[in-house]
Amino acid sequence: MKVLKVDHIGVAVKSLDETLKFYQDMLGLELHGTEVVDEQKVKVAFLPVGDTEVELLESTDPEGPIAKFIEKKGEGIQHIAFRVPNIEEAIAELMGKGVKMIDEKPRYGAGGAKIAFCHPKSTNGVLVELSERE
Ligand code: ZN
């Protein structure tokens, strides 16, 4: 198994506009755009930090996974994404080692990445995302 770096940290927020006041105005991070990912019912704001980034996630639907996360746990860190060189290989290797995957096949992620989530039951509670991108 090879992990290249922390690709991003996903933070669930109620309002991108409200939250950007802290990340942009207080921390001085730059907003490198936003994207709506319909499949996940989420609007994502990208804020690069060094060679990783913070992704703020605002739900576009009260039934979406981010809305449900906030309902249960409140705003906060929702997942950590690790960059892998080949996501199909990474999924196969983890499943071979008995890791439970939410996604057994990669799906589309924000920023044009191929992503797959590991089940928190297999990761001691953290929602871990694998991410492959150019
Ligand atoms: Zn992510």
Automatic annotation (TrEMBL):
It comes from the Bacteria. It holds the Pfam family Glyoxalase_4. Residues 5-133 form the VOC domain. Its EC number is 5.1.99.1. It is an enzyme of class 5 (isomerase). SUPFAM superfamilies: Glyoxalase/Bleomycin resistance protein/Dihydroxybiphenyl dioxygenase. Keywords: Isomerase, Metal-binding. InterPro entries: Glyas_Bleomycin-R_OHBP_Dase (IPR029068), MeMalonyl-CoA_epimerase (IPR017515), MMCE/EMCE_epimerase (IPR051785), VOC_core (IPR037523). The keyword Isomerase applies. One of its GO terms (molecular function) is methylmalonyl-CoA epimerase activity. The keyword Metal-binding applies. PANTHER family: METHYLMALONYL-COA EPIMERASE (PTHR43048), METHYLMALONYL-COA EPIMERASE, MITOCHONDRIAL (PTHR43048:SF3). Belongs to the methylmalonyl-CoA epimerase family. This is Methylmalonyl-CoA/ethylmalonyl-CoA epimerase. It comes from Anaerosolibacter carboniphilus.
